[in-house]
Amino acid sequence: PLHADKVIVLTHEFLFEDGKRGMGATQNLPKLAKFIQLAKQAGYVFDTRDSYTPNWQVGNNYSAGDYVLHLGTVYQAVTSHTAQQDWAPSPTSSLWTNADPATNWTQNVSYKQGDVVTYQGLRYLVNVPHVSQADWTPNSQNTLFTAL
């Protein structure tokens, strides 16, 4: 049940440890299997944050760290603010970051011009379509990326 008294919410940050795709599978899943077994025995149910994320709304007060759903994407507030019509969460917003770990820069990913990626806590706009390489990191390739 969605609103059971004992709900454990698994976050993207946990499943994608250190913001790297796949790290959660090797580092967290072995621990998670035992944790789930013990929690189920204690009567807990599991869900994702997406089921509990409220829709973004103009006029709402948001604190840094709050999560909202906007146009099918989960965003996290960077700073506390009251939402205004022209402050909607977006890939280029300074008030929100995309909480989806798929936006974290990773090697061997085909990026399109206009994509926004996160690398070492900073956001970058992709200037040129390319497949990412180990030595083409956003902070070292100003022809491929522009810091936002």
Concise overview:
The protein is of the alpha+beta class.
Please characterize this protein's 3D structure.
This protein is α+β, with helices and mostly antiparallel strands and 148 residues long. The chain has 3 domains: 7-50, no CATH class; 53-100, Seminal Fluid Protein  PDC-109 (Domain B) (Ribbon); 105-148, Seminal Fluid Protein  PDC-109 (Domain B) (Ribbon). 15% of the residues lie in helices and 27% in strands. The protein has 3 helices and 12 strands; from the N terminus they run βαααβββββββββββ. It has helices at 12-15, 23-27, 29-41, and strands at residues 7-10, 45-48, 61-62, 67-70, 73-77, 81-82, 96-98, 110-111, 116-119, 122-126, 130-131, 145-147. The strands form 5 sheets. It has a 3-stranded antiparallel β-sheet with strand order 4-5-7, with no helix packed on it. Strands 9-10-12 form a 3-stranded antiparallel β-sheet, with no helix packed on it. The longest helix has 13 residues, at 29-41. The chain is flat, with a radius of gyration of 18 Å. The protein starts with 6 loop residues before the first strand and ends with a strand.
